[in-house]
Amino acid sequence: MSISPQLFLKHLIRRDILFFTGVPDSLLKYLCLCIDQSKDLKSNHIITSNEGAAIGLASGYHIGTNKVPLVYMQNSGIGNAINPLLSLADSKVYSIPMLILIGWRGEPGVKDEPQHLSQGEVQIDLLNALKIPFDIISKNNDDYKLIIDRGLNYAKEKSSPFVILIKKNTFSKIVFNSNKQGSNTLPLTREYCLGILLKSLPKNSIIVSTTGKTSREIFELRKLNNQPHENDFLTIGSMGHCSSIALGIAKTNPHLNIFCIDGDGSIIMHMGTLSTIGQELPDNFHHILINNYSHESVGGQKTSSEIIDFNLLSKSLNYKDYYRANNKNSLNKLIKEMLNNSNKPALFEIQVQPGSRSDLGRPTVTPKENKIKLMKKINELSKK
Predict the structure, then answer these.
(1) In degrees rounded to 5, what are phi and psi of residue 305?
(2) pLDDT grade for 43, boundaries at 50, 70 and 90
(3) Which runs of E-coded beta strand occur in the chain?
(4) Which of 15, 182, 264, 324 is the most buried (most CB within 10 A)?
(5) Per-residue pLDDT for 99 more than 90?
(6) 180 lies in a domain?
(7) Do 154 and 197 fall into the same domain?
(8) 96-121: average pLDDT
(9) Crossing angle, helix 5-14 and helix 29-37, to 10 degrees?
(10) Domain count, the chain
(11) Distances (CA, A) of 233 to 140, 207, 229, 254
(12) Last residue within a domain, chosen from 166, 199, 220
């Protein structure tokens, strides 16, 4: 039987865990939603740009209060967290106690997407290599309170991190207040905008799309319109890195038009890449930001994009043009303007409502097949 996220959170609070930070994860989404709605926590829940930042923020909380914070993340985010875990929180350095909840995607024997499989397989070995003690909670753990208590006691006694791995389907579903989530009344949907973009971009344009539903929708739109997939790199996993991938392709293929289709959670996670793009000034690089103000794929929690002026940001980082659309008229007008008049690199922000079709599928080609087809296409275009 699944564990009630409300009761799980109630026990954490009872044990004086009063500060929560991290990056949302689909396996933890119902717990995160409970944290978000808790009247007891109010401002003591902060969603960070990436997992490393969460470790740093939690460390600052402990230094300022002498209390133990809780950090949450998907296991794919451990890579972002390793540096501050070993050079900041580790007992041989500043010795910071914290409880870390990690959603265990790609657990061996459990069906999952390709980008999670290797991470899931090495999960236990990775924690052992990091010398971070851990325990595991699943939906069958009636003793989850004891596991929390053991982990918290260890963190306090050793003044160092303790990890609790959370298996798939551990938490029961809850009905949440949508007003707490990233929501808006904008008329555009992401899939509609992607459909217009795919029909409007010049022939032989190369597309690099961000992880999550953006790449899934592009794959299905290509199929619906009888268009080949060979011009697209559908990033799965590697959140925040699609712009770096697109920059690498753009720099090595200056004769091709490169379109990076990014998301707000992705662009925020590794925002420093924008400065690299502005430094390199690729004149064949179009950066398209589909901004729905939320971590939609993992629960719909708000991103910080609502407080970011992407016009000022991009210009300060040496992007040469900026466009923003939030309705059908501006979308069609500015796509034409971007293609015909913009200096590059250019950032085109398209503001949309969160949400997707309930029957949205996934790519039916493997990541390797996707890569090979794109490389073959780039090679063909280079010979023309």
Answers:
(1) -65, -20
(2) confident
(3) 20-22, 45-47, 70-74, 98-103, 134-137, 161-166, 206-209, 232-234, 258-263, 285-291, 294-295, 301-302, 321-325, 346-351
(4) 264
(5) yes
(6) no
(7) no
(8) 96
(9) 60
(10) 2
(11) 39, 6, 9, 17
(12) 166
